[in-house]
Design a protein that fits this description.
By secondary structure, this protein is an alpha/beta fold. It has a 7-stranded mixed beta sheet with strand order 1-10-9-8-2-3-4, sandwiched between helices. Strand 3, helix 5 and strand 4 form a beta-alpha-beta unit. Helix 4 crosses helix 10. The radius of gyration is 21 Å and the shape is globular. The N and C termini lie far apart (44 Å). 38% of the residues are buried. Bound molecules: 2'-O-acetyl adenosine-5-diphosphoribose (OAD) and zinc ion. 2'-O-acetyl adenosine-5-diphosphoribose binds next to loops. 2'-O-acetyl adenosine-5-diphosphoribose (OAD) binds next to loops.
């Protein structure tokens, strides 16, 4: 682990200062969920088979409107319910239990913070979640059970207007939930300790939050690589390492490690043993995409009218 000293962080925690977390996909990779932008293992580097005009199109609302198949190919892999929370998630729970959690801003749609026991009042799911679904045209809601059922037969569509239905995760081209803005308005001036973890800080407006906190805030980066402007302020602490490694180290210093390990082990028992490494998961997704591609070839043979190039051209504009 490459770190600067944790002394100021530990002092501030011991004084009773509260912690605000800013999470990204890297906090869940050890649960078996791939992140987006890591070379080789990240989701975006493994989407070639979907013939997307660019990787992020899989989460782009205009692309979804034209062709929702790419998203629905992946969605089965990403749906919550198959992955247990990590040690890092339980570190958040410990801060909540000690009365020292201010807020958890997360870009993740995997709901693992909730599964680890973080209460709704603390969680801001900036990019939405799988908890609800609606028609992209008339906005009529559809239950997750119905979506799951319809997904097995094809793309879920609205019973009223026949528009495609998608989970309420925020796609590129869509606005963030109101809770994101209202919470941040209230919290922004009041973040004394910020822990930024497992994110490349590339997607705005989330990516700019850590630079909006006040100058005396202790900003801690727990990430495999240096990102954003972290390291540019004198109070910044860089922990360039895995998120779980960071959680273990901080818990050890605070003497919370016995509790952390117990929570983690209980979580593993309750939500299933971690069955897949990120690499195995990525391979599974690659296989799925290959199957999908082969099916596409058959579909294309059967339907010569499908004009993908037109769509690609349109999206390039
Ligand atoms: P990214 O995939 O862009 O970044 C993940 C970061 O976590 C990278 O800097 C990795 O090096 C780091 N990382 C990976 N595994 C780690 C581990 N075990 N420990 C520590 N660091 C690790 O993911 P996000 O920043 O979350 O949006 O991506 C932001 C948004 O882009 C997502 O919410 C998603 C995506 O498009 C939507 O779907 C709307
Ligand atoms: Zn509709």
């Amino acid at each position: 682990m490459s770190t600067t000293s944790f002394d100021n962080l530990v002092k501030a925690i011991k004084k009773g200062k509260k912690v605000t977390f800013f999470n990204g996909a890297g906090i869940s990779t050890s649960a078996g969920i791939p992140d987006f932008r890591s070379p080789d293992t990240g989701l975006y580097s493994n989407l070639a088979k979907l013939n997307l005009p660019y990787a992020e199109a899989v989460f782009d609302i205009e692309y979804f409107r034209e062709d929702p198949k790419a998203f629905y190919t992946l969605v089965k892999e990403l749906m919550p319910g198959q992955f247990p929370p990590t040690k890092f998630h339980y570190l958040l729970k410990l801060f909540q239990d000690k009365g020292q959690l201010k807020r958890v801003y997360t870009q993740n749609i995997d709901t693992l913070e909730r599964l680890a026991g973080i209460d709704d009042e603390y969680i801001v799911e900036a990019h939405g979640s799988f908890a609800s679904n609606r028609c992209i045209d008339c906005k009529k809601e559809m239950s997750s059970e119905t979506v799951k059922k319809l997904m097995n037969k094809g793309i879920p569509s609205c019973e009223t207007c026949d528009g495609y239905v998608k989970p309420d995760i925020v796609f590129f081209g869509e606005g963030l939930p109101e809770k994101f803005f209202s919470c941040w308005n209230g919290d922004c001036e009041d973040v004394d300790i910020a822990i930024i973890a497992g994110t490349s800080l590339t997607v705005h407006p989330f990516a700019s939050l850590p630079s909006e906190v006040h100058k005396n805030c202790i900003r801690v980066l727990a990430n495999k690589e240096k990102v954003g402007d972290l390291g540019s302020r004198k109070n910044d602490i860089l922990a360039v390492c895995g998120c779980d490694e960071f959680a273990e180290k901080l818990a050890r210093i605070l003497q919370w490690d016995v509790e952390l390990n117990k929570m983690y082990e209980d979580g593993q028992k309750k939500y299933g043993k971690q069955e897949n490494s990120t690499e195995e998961k990525t391979n599974e997704i690659k296989t799925k995409l290959k199957e999908n591609d082969e099916k596409d070839v058959k579909d294309e043979e059967a339907n010569e009218n499908e004009d993908v190039s037109k769509l690609v051209e349109k999206l390039k504009i």
